[in-house]
Design goal:
This protein is mainly alpha-helical. It has three helices and no strands. The two termini are 31 Å apart.
């Protein structure tokens, strides 16, 4: 803590949690994000026939991609198995925007999405 110029205040600290490398709590946060993103994709998919491609893109960017992008610097260094659920959400979002079937190939579409660098 002194290396990072931090000071512990015993009067205010009730619990100090220092997760180890194999801590399951990192996975819980990712699961919450993927669950909320899947729910948003489900809702957008229900109204997709009434939307233009541009309107669908705006909805997906506002409701789904923004959740994936929030604090994405914290995801750096995580193993591929932790990132894969987020990549699957991004793939589903690209399919939804371009109105493609569930198992269609999305690699040509990803350069057009905000998270293509991940």
């Amino acid at each position: 803590m002194t290396d990072h110029h931090l000071k512990l205040n015993p009067g205010k600290t009730e619990l100090l949690f220092l997760p180890g490398k194999d801590c399951p709590f990192h996975d819980l946060a990712i699961k919450a994000v993927t669950r909320s993103c899947r729910f948003m994709l489900y809702n957008i998919r229900r109204v997709r026939p009434c939307l233009t491609q541009e309107a669908a893109q705006v909805l997906v960017q506002a409701l789904v991609i923004s959740r994936l992008d929030y604090c994405n610097s914290l995801l750096a260094g995580l193993p591929a198995c932790a990132i894969k659920p987020l990549q699957l959400i991004q793939n589903a979002a690209a399919r939804l925007v371009f109105n493609l079937p569930k198992f269609s190939h999305v690699t040509p579409l990803l350069p057009h999405t905000p998270l293509a660098s991940n």
